[in-house]
Amino acid sequence: MGVDACRGVISVVERGKYIKAAVNSGKIMQSITEHKGCRASAKTGRASCGSQAGRGDLPVEIWERVKNHPCYSEDAHHHYARMHVAVAPACNIQCNYCNRKYDCANESRPGVVSEKLTPEQAVRKVIAVATTIPQMTVLGIAGPGDALANPAKTFKTLALVTEAAPDIKLCLSTNGLALPDYVDTIVRAKVDHVTITINMVDPEIGAKIYPWIFFNHKRYTGIEAARILTNRQLQGLEMLSERGILCKINSVMIPNINDDHLVEVNKAVTSRGAFLHNIMPLISVPEHGTAFGLNGQRGPTAQELKTLQDACEGKINMMRHCRQCRADAVGLLGEDRSAEFTNDQVMKMDVHYDLEMRKAYQKRVENERVSKVAAGQKELAGVSGEMSAITVLVAVATKGSGLINEHFGHAKEFQLYELSTSGAKFVGLRRVEGYCQAGYGEEDRLSVIMRDIRDCHAVFVAKIGGCPKSGLIKAGIEPVDQFAYEYIEKSTIAWFRAYVGKVKRGEIQHVQRGVPPRWPGDRISAA
Amino acid sequence: MCSAACPRVGLEIGSLRRKEEYVPFKIIASQCTSCSACEPLCPNVAISEKGGNFVIEAAKCSECVGHFDEPQCAAACPVDNTCVVDRALPRYQAPV
Ligand code: SF4
Ligand code: SF4
Ligand code: SF4
């Protein structure tokens, strides 16, 4: 699809805190909490800085609920998959970044269309996927419109799935307008997680984002519309929190409209019990035909996004691995296997739900996670004694499972890890997939990747060709392939240890790479 | 009596209109995204999906008069000027 190529590159980097979890006889225990240089936690006195690495300081009960959820736990996203079923085409509001020829841009990347399903077709698809991809643990209803603007279809799908596949966690996404009316239905439907898209808490700003809403059989416009919407969203969030449902807040960052204001939004949702805040970049190009696309509203740069995410981190976990998946996405985050599961194909498949097989598979995944963490811990023990202020950023080519298992030439995205004596911390993603299409030769792809990861000291890959290898070395980025198919954390820490050693012995000099420009940090911290 | 019970218009007795007097709405198929937002909102169940397209049965449409202040399909439709008055059909008396 042509529009895919125009998709913005989302790159998120974050420095600061680090949590590492050790797994002990099935129970995850926090073993190291290192928050040196953690601005946010120093400020709040909080021991952890997110659900990135492992359990951190999450209460056991919450960790149990999020540990298999690829969106709610950064660590889980290496191992577990989610799927969305597109059963909810209608919407009850209009957003300026959305063109409803396509899917909802709140939860999906704009410019893609999903195959709409009936609840019965959706359930068949869920079972087919659950059987083929046993690490699929989460089903979400995220459009293509608003889950709660299609209550009959949404709740019917959830009920059918609960019946057929009781071990699958359910989530749904909503703009929040109808939320207060459905909170009890959501509880009854055993929904684990709800995502609410909240872009503002100030109706004046809301009027610039939402031209109208449809509420109580009336169309409202302007500030009145935005006031109703924000009241309903916050009320819905409070009601869900009271009932113990985990809420993730999605916010679309729109430069010069709500960028600075999202700090206020962050405070408002934190105080109302939201669990995770996911600030996503506006993706805006004229071809999508959205109001913002047509009026030239730009999206934020990776750096602007990171600065804002950093400014918001503190009392609430910030999500930094969101892939803005489409409403019919299937698979691990970052991969999309929806093409294998079109309605036609699903109808042809022999679907039979095998709970035992899924349980056994997931047990193996858990064992993998345990050994991954243990291997990382062991490696870390070697560096933690060293006192070194050096932090370096490295890029990793991976297909999942926490392994360095992707060929440099095939990587659609690189995962960024920040390495320091406190360990390896996942800090974001750099996408390159949009560029590897026809019209771009190898040469171009390489220079695009080098630009995207220019702030990295090394790139870890399973394999790399001679040409890109020398290109990277010339650009000062070390291609590392001796850790092929090994665990990311263990390998990156081992490399880091050697790096620090070389610096100490004076063999090489540590240089900070490509420090990106600051923006709008000053304004934000003043706000 | 009948005026109070009438789900359609609730007009004064004596001024009950025949169904042609309503202004039927239609959906401009080329603009419709088939999002289904309008369908459950129609108080007269005039909207249905026919082979992937949403259509309004003109004979059932009352322009929502007596039910709501605005035509529901037009108010909820995400595409401007897609649920519109069908001028091709007779219109004896525009509602005030
Ligand atoms: S869009 Fe973001 S939150 Fe939703 S499934 Fe994808 S990664 Fe998770
Ligand atoms: S105007 Fe009202 S009665 Fe007519 S089709 Fe639309 S919703 Fe139904
Ligand atoms: S609301 Fe509009 S776009 Fe959606 S199905 Fe009805 S007529 Fe079509």
Automatic annotation (TrEMBL), chain A:
SUPFAM superfamilies per UniProt: Nitrogenase accessory factor-like (SSF53146), Radical SAM enzymes (SSF102114)
Entry-linked PROSITE patterns: MOAA_NIFB_PQQE (PS01305), RADICAL_SAM (PS51918)
Pfam families recorded: Nitro_FeMo-Co, Radical_SAM
InterPro entries listed in its UniProt record: Aldolase_TIM, Di-Nase_FeMo-co_biosynth, DiNase_FeMo-co_biosyn_sf, MoaA_NifB_PqqE_Fe-S-bd_CS, Nase_CF_NifB, NifB_C, rSAM, rSAM_sf
Entry keyword annotation includes Lyase: yes
Annotated function: Involved in the biosynthesis of the iron-molybdenum cofactor (FeMo-co or M-cluster) found in the dinitrogenase enzyme of the nitrogenase complex in nitrogen-fixing microorganisms. NifB catalyzes the crucial step of radical SAM-dependent carbide insertion that occurs concomitant with the insertion of a 9th sulfur and the rearrangement/coupling of two [4Fe-4S] clusters into a [8Fe-9S-C] cluster, the precursor to the M-cluster.
Family named by the database record: Belongs to the radical SAM superfamily. NifB family.
Protein name in UniProt: FeMo cofactor biosynthesis protein NifB
From TrEMBL, chain B:
Keywords per UniProt: 4Fe-4S, Electron transport, Iron, Iron-sulfur, Metal-binding, Transport
Pfam families tied to this protein: Fer4 (PF00037)
Annotated protein name in UniProt: 4Fe-4S binding protein
Gene3D superfamilies: 3.30.70.20
Keyword Endoplasmic reticulum recorded: no
Cofactor annotation: [4Fe-4S] cluster
Every 4Fe-4S ferredoxin-type domain range: 23-52
Keyword 4Fe-4S part of the UniProt annotation: yes
Annotated source species: Bradyrhizobium daqingense
Molecular function GO labels: 4 iron, 4 sulfur cluster binding; metal ion binding
Domain of life: Bacteria
